[in-house]
Amino acid sequence: MTRNGSRVPDFVFLAHIVDITSAMHGQCCLRTFASLPFRTRFFLIPFFPIAVIGLSAMWLWSKTFLFSFYYLRDRLHQTWVVPRCGFQYFLPFATEGINKHIEQAILTADKIGVKNESLNGGGKLFVDKHPNLRVRVVHGNTLTAAVILDEIPKDATEMLTLATDRFEKVQKEAPPEFQSYLVQVTKYQAAQHCKTWIVGKWITPREQNWAPRGTHFHQFVVPPIFAFRRDCTYGDLAAMRLPEDVEGLGCCEYTMDRGVVHACHAGGIVHMLEGWTHHEVGAIDVDRIDVVWKAAMKHGLRPLSSGSTVKAN
């Protein structure tokens, strides 16, 4: 399918800029740097003022724009970027503007005939406001939950979930032997007894100090939490490796290797490949975690739960 001489994407992943430094991790800025996993480098320092000016201009005038693309099973996948940094999502006066950008991106995708749009967030607000959408809106959190659960060691006996409302029901899907040990999100005192932490929101070094020695932090928060505890380990972001037949990848998705995407991104891909016609928005349907996981495996996506961990220096 084409529109105005260009091919309409089958799938769109709607993302946002993480921070000012990572804004330079794009093919439009430094192609060689973009082809490698993002790390803060000294050579970026001279470009920092330019990035600040550019992002300020984007705040005032820019609309959601195409960032990258690739092909999978002869289907065009694109990443569109909302011209806002992560910290701006926490500014009360910026909420309305951000929601307008997201809403407009969804309506644009619907108008041009995109089948699936994956966004890192709830999405229910926009689906309720526009009940006649043809595009399927997918937050991808169901597959994120499945990836996190797959990473948890089978011999773990206690877990603490520090998550956003996206994971408010994930505890119910945990193995039965965990049920009596699960700890509610806000009870930090109980954290002193748990060595398996599931982190879905930014936590400070002070909050990490609640964890006992030997704790492992599983995380699905962007940017990753600061790894400062030398007596603890930190897992990679919840992510999946794309199938081997993916084509046209010219850049990396944030800190991950080329060909690896965030689990929420992968969740949207699975939704599209399966041809599901429902929206995946709001709270996670725990009954679908196994369904989505098996579908991901069937289509050749693989988790990065190989036990790789990071220790603080």
From TrEMBL:
Q: Does the keyword Transmembrane helix apply?
A: yes
> What membrane topology does the annotation report for this chain?
Multi-pass membrane protein
**Which residues span the membrane?**
42-61
According to the UniProt record, one GO cellular component term is: membrane
**One Pfam family, short name please?**
CER1-like_C
| Very-long-chain aldehyde decarbonylase CER1-like C-terminal domain span | 151-303
Q: Where in the cell is it found?
A: Membrane
Q: Where is the signal peptide?
A: none
Sorted alphabetically, the keyword list is: Membrane, Transmembrane, Transmembrane helix
Protein name as catalogued: Very-long-chain aldehyde decarbonylase CER1-like C-terminal domain-containing protein
